[in-house]
Structures are given as C-alpha cells and as structure tokens.
Design brief:
single chain, mainly beta, 2 domains, elongated
Length: 363
C-alpha cells in the first residue's frame, strides 16, 4: 500500500521483548515458578493519544489479545471538510496494520453533533477501539481526512510516509512473561515493572568456568520523609563467553510477610560497565500516595547469564551452587561494610562471604 506524505514526524519505539522456555541440562536452581496463585488476567488496554500539538502519547500496555484505543485530535487534519446540501460530507479515518499477519483495521475517529437528530457540521473526536490480534508483534497507524460531494480533497497524517509504529508485547499471562521484571532506573530504591525478553532459553548449564560470578551484593535502606524502603542490589561480573551475551539477571524466592506466600521472580540486570551488570529487588515498600506497599523476606538467590552461541543455541549459565541456590546468610552472616546514601545506607557483604566463592575461585 502506498502511504502519502505526512503532516508530522515522529520517532517512537517501545522495545518489545518476549521470552523463555526453560529446558533442563545439568543441575538447575530450584525455580518452581508456577507454584504461585495465578489471578484472572483482564485484557490489557492501551491508549494512544494523537494531540493537536503534534505529540503522540502511549499509556497502558500494548499486549497480544488486549485492546487498543486510538484518540485522534481532529485539528491535526483541518483540511478537506466539504458539505453537501448543508450537511457534512467528510470523515477522518484511522488505519491500523498489525504485523506479522498484515491484518488491517479501519474506522472513523469522529462523530458529528446533531440538532434533534439532524447532523450539524460540528465534529468531535470519538476514540476508535480495536482488538489486538493474538499473534501481533507490532502495529503501524496512519490517518486520512477526505471529503466527498464532488471534491477529491484528501489529507494524510502518516509520519512523513513512515507511519506511526508501536511494538506489541505478549499477553500478561503468557508463560514467557510470567514472573519477569526489569530494573528501570538507578534511583533508590529500585523501581521495576513487568517485563518480557525477546529470546527463548534453550539448554541450561552451570557457570563453572568463570562465565559469571557475584562481585558485590548489598542490602539498602532509605527513609525519605520517614517513609521506609528496603531493597537488595547485586553486581554481577560477566567473563568471556563462547558467544554473545543477551541478558544477565537474578532469580529470587521471597516470602510475603503478610500472606506467607512465596513469590519467585526473575530480575534482569542493566549493564553498568564493560563486564559488570547491576540488578536489584525491592523487599520493603511503604504504602503511601496510592502506592501499594509490601514486605518480603528473601529466602534464596541464584544468578545467570544468557548467551547466544555461534551455532544459534541460546544457553543459560547459572551461578547457583549447582542448583542449591544461595541464602541471605551466605551474603550477610559476616560483618558488613556500610555506605551512606541520602536518607539511608547500603550494607555490603563481607569479601569473605560464601556468596563470593565463585569470585575468589576466578581471581
């Protein structure tokens, strides 16, 4: 399909990530990720607002099987608004094309005010709501304003022929996304959001050849305005690999202090230097300003690196004591060293702590 010249430019992309199917090869950590209660998942609703100031804002989550609401300000395309016998003879329509299927959905994004059932020439925007196909990985949008009544006037909003592109994530209850989180920023305490990664994990091995080890781990505390928060942060050293590093992260099992339920979680790390990655997990969040609070006690930890081999295999290498996992006492039973931070501190594990066994072996 030929898309005409646009009225506005936009460069916006959301990294869509999809994940992991666990396969066993060698001794593995005690994951048991499915031993938690599964709530009924409500289809996700995402909204894209195309404003009169030529901004585009996405809110919510674009997920397979969810819904997408498109809100379009009619002032973006003010041309081509002809009438016929005093009645409106024009329309502004959105076109959405989902990939990889190529499914196309079209619909009007306006309605006309009426006077006792008779339409006037006063138009107002009406959101177009569409269902996101189950297998969709991205969607592109463009808009067309045209008039009839003997006129061939047509105006386009298509991001200068590039269209408006957005990535689509798997459904929230997709096994590739279950219990996966990613670190968002470096503020204390760490903020995380639900997350999927793009690769599927194949065989899994022990990281017995210095491919990965814990290089630092600390327990943080902050009480800004007297509101307490606690978190765990870990620094992982990644050695030479037979292939390309695709992800680094931490597996944890934590017990909810209120319910007693176990929450297994994978937290993906961010790279902070050429060979060091940082990950974190909030263990105490206060219930303030409509933010849901919680308190967890971490019971076990394990760490991993995902590597794409030259033959295409995606392997996960674990630092997990050959499947036994680490406990908090492995990190913090010895005297700690304290680093002061604004409104709090971080207690870092002693260099002789058991959690650094692999580090000492590799140095």
């Amino acid at each position: 399909m030929h898309i005409h010249r646009s009225l506005v430019a936009l460069s916006f992309a959301i990294i869509a990530l999809a994940l992991m199917a666990l396969a066993c090869s060698g001794e593995q950590p005690d994951l048991n990720l499915d031993n938690t209660k599964q709530a009924t998942v409500t289809p996700a609703l995402a909204q894209i607002h195309f404003t009169s100031t030529w901004d585009e804002h996405l809110s919510g989550e674009l997920r397979q099987g969810g819904r997408l609401e498109v809100s379009y300000d009619l002032q973006r395309l003010p041309e081509c608004r002809g009438t016929h016998n005093g009645f409106p003879a024009w329309d502004t329509r959105a076109t959405l094309r989902f990939s990889p299927s190529g499914t196309i959905v079209e619909g009007s994004v306006l309605a006309f005010q009426n006077d006792q059932g008779v339409p006037t020439n006063v138009a107002y925007k009406v959101p177009l709501v569409v269902e996101i196909p189950a297998g969709a990985t991205s969607v592109e949008l463009w808009f067309k304003n045209s008039t009839g009544a003997g006129s061939s006037c047509v105006a386009w909003d298509s991001n200068f022929n590039a269209n408006y592109h957005y990535e689509i994530q798997p459904a929230a209850d997709d096994p590739r996304c279950k219990q996966l989180w990613t670190k968002q920023n470096s503020d204390m305490p760490y903020a995380t959001t639900p997350h999927c990664v793009e690769h599927h994990v194949g065989p899994q091995y022990n990281a017995d050849h210095c491919e990965l080890y814990v290089d630092g781990i600390g327990h943080g505390y902050m009480a800004h305005y007297g509101i307490p928060n606690r978190w765990l942060e870990a620094y992982l050293k990644v050695g030479p690999q037979h292939g390309d590093v695709r992800a680094v992260g931490m597996f944890s099992r934590a017990r909810n202090q209120e319910t007693g339920e176990i929450d297994p979680r994978v937290t993906f790390a961010r790279q902070v230097s050429s060979d060091t990655w940082q990950t974190g997990l909030i263990t105490l969040r206060s219930n303030v300003m409509r933010q849901e609070g919680f308190a967890y006690d971490i019971e076990t930890l394990a760490f991993f690196v995902d590597v794409r081999r030259p033959n295409g295999e995606l392997a996960r290498l674990w630092q997990s004591r050959h499947g036994a996992n680490y406990s908090m006492s492995d990190a913090f039973s010895l005297p700690t060293s304290m680093k002061s931070i604004p409104y709090g501190n971080i207690q870092y594990a002693h260099p002789d702590a058991a959690i650094f066994d692999a580090q000492r072996a590799c140095r």
